[in-house]
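Hi R.,

As promised on Friday, here is the backbone we talked about, encoded as structure tokens. Could you run it through your design pipeline when you get a chance and send me back a sequence?
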């Protein structure tokens, strides 16, 4: 009787330990998935097949012709920050969210849901066209790979980011950004090279 009781007790204890271990592993897994949470932002980058004109319906949309940017304004236009990617020889300023020049039909655009580079665990989201037109600021982004570096100069400080993920998303007016919300990130979005139906998202984490 004592032996049977001892065996039963051992089995119960072992089962309890296994269940506890399973719950611990499950919680860790779910916590990891939560850290890799996603967010959706509204953005659309495409060319009207009928007119050949670039169409912009991002939240910062300003109708074509409302803003006339001179070369001097483009070069020295009170930028909020400057994006630099040495690998593709890119150095381009961008404006604050409420600036009239913060428009994807004119410049590299800081999306409305963006955080600023100095916000802890925030996400700075920059959007620009690819292609060969004068507004194709992100035309060489396709050359980037995981591990490459990008930097933002903001308020006199340089923030260096390393690309950790590159993926495509369908052009349907929304882009899903997958990132670790416990990290400060830079997300760059542009049209996918040689695919008119997709947009490519580059997620980089602050180093």
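Update: got your reply. Pasting your designed sequence below so it's all in one thread:
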């Amino acid at each position: 009787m004592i032996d049977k009781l001892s065996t039963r007790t051992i089995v119960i204890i072992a089962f309890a330990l296994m269940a506890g271990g399973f719950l611990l592993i499950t919680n860790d897994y779910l916590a990891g998935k939560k850290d890799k949470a996603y967010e959706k932002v509204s953005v659309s980058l495409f060319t009207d097949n009928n007119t050949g004109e670039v169409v912009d319906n991002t939240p910062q949309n300003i109708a074509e012709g409302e803003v006339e940017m001179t070369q001097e304004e483009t070069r020295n236009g009170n930028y909020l920050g400057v994006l630099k990617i040495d690998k593709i020889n890119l150095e381009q300023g961008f404006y604050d969210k409420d600036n009239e020049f913060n428009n994807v039909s004119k410049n590299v655009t800081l999306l409305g849901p963006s955080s600023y580079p100095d916000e802890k665990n925030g996400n700075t989201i920059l959007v620009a066209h690819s292609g060969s037109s004068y507004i194709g600021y992100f035309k060489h982004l396709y050359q980037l790979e995981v591990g490459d570096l990008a930097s933002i100069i903001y308020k006199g400080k340089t923030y260096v980011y390393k690309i950790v993920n590159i993926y495509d998303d369908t052009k349907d007016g929304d882009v899903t950004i997958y990132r670790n919300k416990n990290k400060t990130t830079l997300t760059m979005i542009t049209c996918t090279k040689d695919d008119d139906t997709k947009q490519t998202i580059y997620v980089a984490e602050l180093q």
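One thing I noticed while checking it: The first helix runs from residue 2 to 35.

Thanks again,
M.
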